[in-house]
Amino acid sequence: xxxxxxxxxxxxxxxxxxxxxxLLGCAHWLFAGQPQPPADAxxxxxxxVDVHAHLDPADPNGSVQAALHxxxxxxxxxxxxxxxxxxxxxxxxxxxxxYMAAVKAHPGKLAFLGGGGTLNVMIQNAVxxxxxxxxxxxxxxxxxxxxxxxxxxxFGELTAEHxxxxxxxxxxxxxxxxxxxxxxxxxxxDVPIDLHMEAVPQAMALPANLKSPPNAAQxxxxxxxxxxxxxxxxxxxxxxxxxxxxxxxxxxxELQRRLLKAHPNLYMEIKVDPVDLGKNPPIDASGRIKPxxxxxxxxxxxRFVIGSDQHYPEPKEGPQRWQADVLLLNQLPASVRxxxxxxxxxxxxxxx
Length: 352
What we know:
Helices cover 41% and strands 16% of the residues. It has eleven helices and 13 strands. The strands form three sheets. Strands 4, 5, 6, 7, 10, 11 and 12 form a seven-stranded mixed beta sheet that branches. Helix 5 (134-149) packs parallel to helix 6 (177-189).
């Protein structure tokens, strides 16, 4: 019996060691900037839903095939696609209609959100013009209702603070009348709002690693307006995008913990960008989850989802965001992992 127990114990140690070797090997690949993952890249231990990914509208079919391939390799069950949060001056603006047919050809595998190329532009125009009157609100509501009627699982990607990248720099108060109106529409239809907002707890200068222009030299305080949006309609589910990818250094574990505790309708997407980890990443240099982040996930297991912010087709070279999220997901305790991987997303987005 003792020998059998010893063999069993040794087998368990070997199995755990092997798991960590695989994990750390993949982490080395991710953070050393090596070529994209092979077909046998580490899959998720629990099938997961990625609620935040983007397609190239110039190649919707190629993008869809790349997403389906990543889905198969990584063991994702569903990927939600959404347009970027466009500004009025951006070129090539599009919304969910650009890839809706391709998405609908793969029910259950792919789903979509809408509004980044329309609702977000309308919000930005209203902020700049100062006009959020009855006619603007009528058109805004008409468009939001159309997104839901077309099968959209929610509204996104929208933004209250977005640094220059694939789109222009943008700012809008999170408690703007159009955001408040959208919260009411989202609550009525029981669909979430995906919001990109760099954390600015108090007015501050632009971080030194960013340039102005194109970004604003001074940033508006936005956490108090965000809390007013959350309080406006407690039935509206707000998903704060990109937890773990912090551009200001202010989206701390402590801030997120306070907001999650105060606002039951607040949810967060986990994003790990292996190329640019940001200022408050959830992992250390070896790829292990940091203890304070792990405690946050364990304390609020019903409030996080996976949102990789992967752009398809995948980059030809370099690590992939979806794989970085998988490696983080695989380190979570099993009960927490299942909730964050799929249960929460299925509930939030009405998936089967």
